[in-house]
């Protein structure tokens, strides 16, 4: 298994996520799904739960639980979407925006600490490869393999 690339990706991803989760939980009381929802909503200005799930690849239940927790904490608000009575737009409250402004620099610092031993060319290549893996995997899931 140690040489099986999907296994290596999973182990490494879990390790990075667990490290980040401990930081966010201890400093801000947020789970990884909650942080992802906050970040996506902050970066887009507002999104539906379905769109957040599609963008983050989190399942509906995980997004829903994170959104409920964030609404209960007063960090997120639900607004009706014009023309769609079943869907709501999630937006950050003032407290949510303040939290995002506090977390974002810490997230960037943690990213820097994890990847500081790599050169820019290595990181650029790594990100490009991740994007290609994502595209090919999505295409495989659709039944229409594409080259990256």
Automatic annotation (TrEMBL):
Keyword annotations: DNA-binding, Transcription, Transcription regulation
Chaperone recorded as keyword: no
Keyword DNA-binding: yes
Domain of life: Bacteria
PANTHER family in the record: HTH-TYPE TRANSCRIPTIONAL REGULATOR PCHR
HTH marR-type domain residues: 1-135
InterPro entries in alphabetical order: HTH_MarR-typ, Metal_resp_HTH_trans_reg, Tscrpt_reg_MarR-type_CS, WH-like_DNA-bd_sf, WH_DNA-bd_sf
Protein name per Swiss-Prot or TrEMBL: MarR family transcriptional regulator
Single GO molecular function: DNA-binding transcription factor activity
């Amino acid at each position: 298994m140690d040489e099986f690339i999907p296994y290596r990706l999973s182990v490494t991803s879990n390790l990075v996520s667990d490290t980040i989760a401990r930081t966010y939980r201890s400093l801000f009381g947020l789970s990884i799904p909650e942080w992802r929802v906050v970040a996506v909503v902050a970066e887009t200005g507002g999104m539906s739960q379905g769109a957040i799930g599609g963008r983050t690849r989190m399942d509906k239940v995980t997004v829903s639980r994170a959104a409920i927790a964030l609404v209960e904490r007063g960090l997120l608000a639900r607004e009706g979407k014009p023309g769609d009575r079943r869907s709501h737009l999630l937006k950050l409250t003032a407290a949510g925006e303040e939290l995002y402004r506090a977390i974002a620099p810490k997230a960037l610092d943690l990213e820097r600490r994890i990847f500081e031993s790599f050169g820019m060319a290595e990181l650029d290549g790594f990100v490009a490869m991740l994007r290609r893996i994502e595209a090919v995997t999505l295409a495989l899931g659709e039944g229409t393999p594409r080259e990256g």
